[in-house]
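Milestone 3.1: sequence recovery, worked example.
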């Protein structure tokens, strides 16, 4: 099994293809976007990830990695395509289905197909295998199928692809063992074998655990201001307990995993996944909560200008998938009374117009920090104070030095400590309606 075809050259597929090529495999990278294929074949990268460009350059220049827009014949096929959710919060397996159908005409006896995409439990066994069976090969004896979910953190993908423990689930024991032979070529962490559905559930529960924990922190962030206490301080002291590990609150949960995967369980088991559903609802509601905090801060400012710092779903990456910042930006943009400027040093392309740092702050009435990029910690509040019109800043990540900003004359508000003081005149009225009525 020396020829490997990796379908999907995104945040997982491209690093995986490059690592396999660096370990002596002949790798065909497949992506339907011609621009992505061209960039990779030139030894470049289309995503931001430390160390990836060097790895891709080495893989391409060695002749072991070449990208195509169409699936290529190989011995092993790794599917690393997206599994998003629809607006109805249901799993969209169309990318997996399309990738699988593209390789069916290429399959031969003895081939191995590995699904890396995070998927609802049962996807490999019931959905993927049904498509692969169209090849006419007997599954488990002539064609082997396994699920090996990625378990990496953007910003540390290459390191964690190599060092993290991997879970491999096969449709039978031989499928899992063949997949193990591929991953042992580069994985230094432990490799555990199980069945495909268990492997799928392991990955989903890893992300669901984090989502539920974050929801707990976000509930605390909504409660704390009513008690005039700081949720971040509560978390810091509570985590001194040896068996407590509260996560931190924020303006929402984004990314392709944590904000998506729990919905797979809610969709399949709506009556049983009650805590999971509630956690998702809480975290999906945090952009609205943050927006209300913004409206409360600028309620007496006519035609305010707001500066949004950060558009990605987490710090120090360029990934905007499911980013809560995008939802906040959309709420602001729909408000006819508010002018919006956005600055993010990591995002090169977006659906929103991005500004330079100075122009983003110019005549601003409120700064909303939505992402804790390292660059933002070094912004000089006194210099910013000379650019803005009103000195208001909202920190949703507890990322800034409150003392420095307040000494520079800013009103510093922290999500989890400061809540919206504007009271609803009507229980059914929205805060936005009141804001527009004032203006």
């Amino acid at each position: 099994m020396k020829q490997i075809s990796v379908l999907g050259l995104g945040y997982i597929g491209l690093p995986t293809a490059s690592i396999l090529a660096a370990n002596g495999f002949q790798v065909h990278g497949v992506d339907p976007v011609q621009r992505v294929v061209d960039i990779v074949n030139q030894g470049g990268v289309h995503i931001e990830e430390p160390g990836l460009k060097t790895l891709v350059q080495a893989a391409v220049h060695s002749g072991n990695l070449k990208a195509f827009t169409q699936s290529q014949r190989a011995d092993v096929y790794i599917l690393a395509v997206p599994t998003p959710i629809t607006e109805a919060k249901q799993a969209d397996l169309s990318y997996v289905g399309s990738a699988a159908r593209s390789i069916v005409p290429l399959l031969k006896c003895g081939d191995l197909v590995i699904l890396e995409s995070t998927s609802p439990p049962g996807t490999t066994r019931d959905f993927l295998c049904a498509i692969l069976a169209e090849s006419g090969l007997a599954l488990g004896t002539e064609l082997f199928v396994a699920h090996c979910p990625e378990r990496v953190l953007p910003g540390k993908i290459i390191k964690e692809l190599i060092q993290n423990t991997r879970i491999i689930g096969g449709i039978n024991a031989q499928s899992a063992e063949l997949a193990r032979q591929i991953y042992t070529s580069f994985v230094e962490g432990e490799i555990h074998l199980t069945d495909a559905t268990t492997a799928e559930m392991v990955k989903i529960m890893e992300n669901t655990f984090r989502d539920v924990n974050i929801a707990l922190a976000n509930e605390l962030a909504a409660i704390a201001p009513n008690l005039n206490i700081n949720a971040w301080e509560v978390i810091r002291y509570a985590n001194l307990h040896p068996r407590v590990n509260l996560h931190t609150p924020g303006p929402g949960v984004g990314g392709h995993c944590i904000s998506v995967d729990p919905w797979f369980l809610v969709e399949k088991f709506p009556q049983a996944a009650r805590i999971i559903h509630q956690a998702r609802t809480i975290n999906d509601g945090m952009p609205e909560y943050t927006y209300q905090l913004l409206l409360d801060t600028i309620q007496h400012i006519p035609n305010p200008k707001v500066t949004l710092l950060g558009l990605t779903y987490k710090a120090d990456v360029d990934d905007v998938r499911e980013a809560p910042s995008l939802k906040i930006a959309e709420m602001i943009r729909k408000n006819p009374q508010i002018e919006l400027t956005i600055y993010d040093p990591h995002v090169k392309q977006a659906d929103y117009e991005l500004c330079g740092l100075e122009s983003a702050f110019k005549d601003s009435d409120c700064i909303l920090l939505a992402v804790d990029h390292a660059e933002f910690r070094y912004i000089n509040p006194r210099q910013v104070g000379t650019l803005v019109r009103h000195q208001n800043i909202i920190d949703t990540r507890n990322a800034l030095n409150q003392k420095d900003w307040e000494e520079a004359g800013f009103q510093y508000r922290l999500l989890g400590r400061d809540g919206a003081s504007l009271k609803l005149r009507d229980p059914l009225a929205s805060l936005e309606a009141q804001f527009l009525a004032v203006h």
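DSSP finds 17 helices and 13 strands in the chain. Confidence is low (pLDDT under 50) at residues 421-429.
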